[in-house]
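hi! just following up on the protien thing from before. the input was this:
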Amino acid sequence: MSSIDTLVNTTIRSDVRAIHGYHVADASGYIKLDAMENPYHLPHHLREELANRLVDVTLNRYPVASYGTIKERVRAKLGVPAGYDVMLGNGSDELISILCTGCALQDRRAVVLAPTPSFVMYQRSAQFAGMDYVGVPLKADLTLDLPAMLAAIAQHKPSLVFLSYPNNPTGNLFAADDIVAIIKALDGFGLAVVDEAYEPFAQQTFMHRLPEFDNLVVMRTVSKLGLAGIRLGYMSAAPQLLAEFDKVRPPYNINVLTQAAAEFALDHVEVLNQQATDLRAARADLMAALAAMPGVQVFPSAANFILIRVPNSDDAYAKLLSRKVLIKNVGKMHDVLANCLRITVSTPEENSAFLDAFAASLAS
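and the predicted 3d structure came back as:
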């Protein structure tokens, strides 16, 4: 009988063995400001109504594979253009994986291209699908390097270009004209995927521009809107493209509890939109408070998080952790993020507690 080490080495891909799994920190007992979640619950009366609706969900049957009712609500409530459908995913992560799997050509090694730093799952999904990944560094001010992006597109002819809008982890919106230039540069051989996970906080979108560009895919999630726990992403594109990607989508990929909860939430989307409005106001207050602190550089943000630079991000992170505040230390992700921290915008109470702990960390 082979040892387990031999079995792993002979059956698992070497590139998979060489990387670490996606790490999620244990937040028990902490003020949790590391994952860009909406901190607000639904109002009590809506939670009771949701509970009553979930009681009636048929758990012993598979979901209706067309997902017609939830897709209808997404199209009606979330700005999808007339004549365009949506595909649902188990979070946007699954949609990224579906896009990469569908575009992993068999006659040549296909390429995924994205600005870097950006969402880590673009690179991971490309790798797992057997595609090459090309990252194009942002400028020192964290803006998009359009000439470098266009040069990389011309050189590598990528099948997919992912553009996080606004970008994670930097929080800034790339210039819309730059994104249009990238979409046009890909015409005829590649797809531009505009990932609008933080659209409720940016109030900027390419969704209405889908009819302009056959090679545009717009992807979103309801996680940041306030439904991270149900894991639901959606994307829209030209009907012919969406039909091809639907062949890759696993059957029954959205469970009935997620569907019921999402339908209920979209029936009351005005509550979630108000929470997003409150968080946008809190973002402005938090940015102003941070900018007033000595030695802290605050970068522009159109998301529900803020990127800052401090003299020593490792030290600040450790001191915040000791004070039971969990943020994200992104200083090692890329050279342009040296000594940077990412903080999720939260409730006034949690924002105030963070600021007190952060000020104490800087002073000690």
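The two ends are 57 Å apart (CA to CA).
The chain has two domains: 13-43+269-362, 62-267.
cheers
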